[in-house]
Design a protein that fits this description.
The complex is a heterodimer of chains A (198) and B (338). With 198 residues, chain A is an alpha+beta fold. Chain A is 31% helix and 13% strand. Chain A is built from 6 helices and 5 strands; from the N terminus they run αββαβββαααα. In chain A, a hairpin with a 2-residue loop joins strand 3 and strand 4. Chain A starts with 13 loop residues before the first helix and ends with a helix. Chain B is an alpha+beta fold. Helix content of chain B is 29%, strand content 21%. Chain B has 13 helices and 12 strands. In chain B, the strands form 3 sheets. Chain B has a 5-stranded antiparallel β-sheet. In chain B, strands 9-10-11-12 form a 4-stranded antiparallel β-sheet. In chain B, strand 11 and strand 12 form a beta hairpin. Classes of the chains: A alpha+beta (198), B alpha+beta (338). At the A-B interface, strand 4, helix 4 and helix 5 of A face strand 1, helix 1 and helix 5 of B.
């Protein structure tokens, strides 16, 4: 699988291409036009904090928080699994509350604090939920895992990790096609009860 | 989705300009349902007014002989609130049975009642390769003779056979709740059970209306609160039947509120969900339940008799027995509550 951290002339990721072509569409047409150029897309200034970093961005209101995080902020931990709120792989925290970033407009996050999976580890140390997922073998392909971990953090903070049944119910918004549910549940219960494997 | 102007409402009246097509109000921190409409082409407004920053519309409090719930309260807030557990347990259960924890953190109880059907023919991305009178008036109803396992057994017409999938609305209907609306013509109260319209009811407005008119909401109107009567000794329960244990819409559901005297039903309200385009009160059965003990043997024959009036489609006959069974279980569970 090819990944590139930097897009240069010889190698460009799909995301890079889409971002560049979107930017190009906002530039004025260079050829003489017989019909008037289309109006500039309406934008709105939005200021919010992402993983503790203050950002001021100028966005079209239709941009979802998910697309902003992935395409503009370079935070690709939140995944676009279904883009309709049915899978939970896009789960992030907004003011500490877990929600599907695909169902949230970036402009709705004005003056709010957004936390993504990238914001959980501190100084290179995995947080206890991340460690618990490793210790309990709570993932196979890993695609749902980032959303699971963010969701699990909030599940405990909400007070909904008191039993296996409660965890299964309150974590039901994160689908795992590899069916690692028993291990995910064990990891969440471990952190809730003991603060994790450490 | 097409781009739109976005404005934050400073007061409820800022949403009165919303005509539901070109200008739409987004409910509080919600908008999840609306974003999916925009992505599918169900709606494509040029302007959105966000009610999400309004203060004072998310409270849950006793208000004399009523429990008042602000329309911007989220499903999680309603679902875990002690006053709801005390006076309207069925509503708390219904809220927590809905969607996922992530969605419930944003979805509001006001917006929840304005969601649209999950019919797969309706929920397709435009342009539709089949007929749907809701999406394109006059093109027909693909579900009428198609894959209609999840569709209506009451109130449908040949123009449309969709159901209203909300869980909270079924509970509110069983609780005889009122909804408070505010709009360009002022405030009004409406029984929640009368808010949604079946296709038969909507069809009195013409052939196109049968599929297109779904509620009594007037242009520019906003749901601001629900008021639930507080009844001493009321026991209530919600039963949601679905193909998996969580995070899925109902096949059928039942909300029940009963009052008991000497171990027998003194008063009963039974509402069914996902059997029609509105919560379906079994008013005739409610009268017959009085005097019965809240046991399956006693209540099931009465409920089955009420369901005999159902008009199932080719693939959803199972809903008739399932709904009767769900209602029976809800009565038994409600009766067993302290």
């Amino acid at each position: 699988m090819q990944t590139s951290k930097k897009d240069d002339a010889s190698s460009i990721s799909r995301r890079g291409f889409l971002v560049l072509s979107g930017a190009a569409a906002a530039l004025p047409a260079s050829a003489p036009a017989r019909t008037p150029a289309p109006p500039r897309p309406r934008r709105r200034a939005t200021r919010f904090a992402v993983n503790g970093r203050a950002m001021v961005v100028d966005l079209e209101p239709r941009v979802t928080l998910l697309d902003f995080l992935r395409d503009r902020a370079g935070l690709t931990g939140a995944k676009k699994g279904c883009n309709e709120g049915a899978c939970g792989t896009c789960t992030v925290l907004v003011d500490g509350q877990r929600m599907n970033s695909c169902l949230t407009l970036a402009v709705q996050c004005d003056k709010r604090e957004v936390t993504t999976i990238e914001g959980l580890a501190e100084d290179g140390r995995l947080d206890d939920m991340q460690q618990a997922f490793i210790e309990h073998d709570a993932f196979q392909c890993g695609y749902c895992t980032l959303g699971q971990i963010v969701s699990a953090r909030a599940c405990i903070a909400e007070g909904h990790a008191g039993s296996e049944a409660e965890v299964r119910e309150w974590m039901s918004g994160n689908i795992c096609r590899c069916a690692a549910y028993p291990q995910i549940t064990a990891a969440v219960l471990d952190v809730a009860a003991n603060g994790g494997p450490r | 989705m097409r781009n739109f102007d976005y404005a934050v409402a400073g007061k409820v009246a800022d949403a009165f300009a919303a005509d539901g097509t070109d200008v739409m109000a987004i409910a509080g921190g919600g908008g999840g349902e609306l974003l999916n409409w925009f992505r599918l082409g169900i709606a494509s407004p040029s302007r959105i007014v966000d009610l999400g920053r309004l203060k004072g519309l998310d409270g849950i409090a006793e208000n004399g002989d009523r429990l008042s719930i602000g329309a911007l309260a989220t499903l999680n807030e309603v679902g875990v609130h002690p006053l709801v557990a005390q006076h309207a347990a069925v509503l708390g259960q219904a809220c927590l049975a809905a969607a996922s924890a992530q969605i419930r953190n944003r979805a509001t109880i006001g917006g929840n009642l304005l969601q649209k059907t999950r019919c797969e023919y309706f929920r397709a991305e435009a342009p539709l390769p089949w007929g749907c009178n809701k999406r394109a008036p006059g093109t027909g109803c693909a579900a009428r003779e198609g894959l209609n396992e999840r569709h209506a057994i009451f109130g449908w017409t040949d123009a449309c056979v969709a159901v209203q999938p909300s869980d909270p609305v079924v509970a509110l209907a069983a609780l005889d709740a009122q909804m408070e609306l505010d709009g360009p013509q002022g405030r009004r109260l409406l029984p929640v059970a009368d808010f949604h319209l079946t296709q038969e009811q909507a069809g009195s407005g013409g052939v196109e209306a049968a599929a297109r008119v779904e509620t009594q909401l007037r242009p520019g109107e906003v749901i601001v609160a629900y008021h639930v009567p507080i009844r001493a000794g009321q026991r209530s329960s919600y039963v949601k039947v679905r193909e998996r244990a969580s995070y899925e819409y109902a096949l059928v559901s039942a909300a029940v509120a009963v009052g008991l005297a000497d171990g027998r039903i003194r008063q009963a309200a039974v509402a069914l969900g996902s059997v029609a385009q509105k919560p379906w009160r079994l008013t005739a059965a409610e009268g017959q339940l009085v005097g019965q003990p809240p046991t399956r043997e006693a209540v099931l024959p009465i409920l089955r008799s009420a369901l005999s009036e159902a008009r199932p489609l080719q693939h959803n006959g199972y809903k008739v027995a399932m709904a009767a069974g769900a209602a029976a279980r809800a009565i038994v569970e409600a009766g067993a509550r302290a």
